[in-house]
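Contributing new records

If you add data, match the layout below exactly. Sequence lines come first and carry their own label; structure lines follow with theirs. Keep one chain per record. Anything else will be rejected by the validation script.
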Amino acid sequence: MQGPEFLSQLPSIDELLDNPRIKAAVDRWSRTTAAARVRSAVTTLSAEVSRRAESLQNLAPTELLERIIRQLEQPRSALPTRVINASGWLIGDEWSGPPLASVAIEAASADAESFRFGRPHAAAEAAAGLLRVERACVASSHVAAVSATLEALAGGGACLVARSEMSQLAPGVRLDEICRRAGVRLREVGATDSADLDDYRRAIDEESAAGGPAPLVLRRATAGQVGVAVEELAGLARERGLRLVVDAAWLRPLDDTPSYTEGAASAGGLAAKGADAVILDAAGLMGGPVAGVVAGKTAAIEAVHERLVSRGDQVASLADAALAATIGLFRQPATLRFVHPLYQLLDTPVENLQTRAERIAGRLAASERIESAEAQQVASVCPAMCESPSWAVRVVPAGTTPEALAGRLRKHDAAVHARVGGGALWLDLRAVPPREDSPLVAAVAPESSSGAAEGAAVAGS
């Protein structure tokens, strides 16, 4: 019996999907994903039949079915899951970083295809040049950069930080714990919601009276620049012979980098105001790989670099290559919205988001799986866009809860991360590229994805 005749004994794909045994194997996927997996299993079996027609000719249809089921039940290799970010958050929160620019991917790929140099330095040189500082070094992460900086510049002494700036460095990573591990005593300054220059003066005087090592002043800067101005703290630090470190985690790199928040500061601008070291999260508004950049005065950065080397916390070669390429994009800020995926998303006009949200809502509302779907304007939840609105699709599923739908979407092949609240699932389009509109609809309501022409129109908006 030849291959095609052999496989003709099997039912159609739809019949296979309705088979109780196959249904049990694929009930954790959507029907679209299950159909793709079954087709793949049949294709694999077809190739085997073509190679071994003689030895397999006595297999009964039930045995063919058994082979397909075994393929479906085999664990898949642990490859990264493609994610559609419909949470509205572009940086921070649960995301390790935004999509990398094509030049960064190409640079990392080229580095991966050759022997890697043991001491990466391209990104550090590029960062120092971009931020116009004496020197820079790069750590394996923003948290590693903060920890190494505190250990190098305040080890054995105190770190003064405003009580209002005691937020976590990352989910589950507390500043006081980082200080403890770095051998630094954390001293909170000011009230719960504010600290002024006199609060810092008093804390410095008390530390000096205690006779310990000179304290380090840590300022955690945000886009809105709430708190004591960096130039005032820098003046106080110079007056008292102290070092000032500014954690500019999610700030834009330069003053000429496009800003989506009124009066937003920049890492380069803060370095120019007198800070000894400025720390930047490379996976923040720089839109690079996971890494931490420490830039500033030579003496401070050399001490941090030595600490990174001794701790084994230097950036990996692949990330170094990708970050160096990403930094190069900021030398032409006017072109960022064309070549950098993060800035393409940041620059999307709100009218465009509204049009897409209305189209997606219409497609979802036509599905039997959806009780209602409507486009609504929402406030931005992204720290980089505090003043920019977005548009989302408010989805109320039929026959299940928003929480259950959100859980299913996170397990989808194209995992969808969305917000849940107010009795609905919210698909915020601020972080969704137009090309992902149709896959988003297919994940939420699989049978709604059949309109190829309409899907092309949505993706091209």
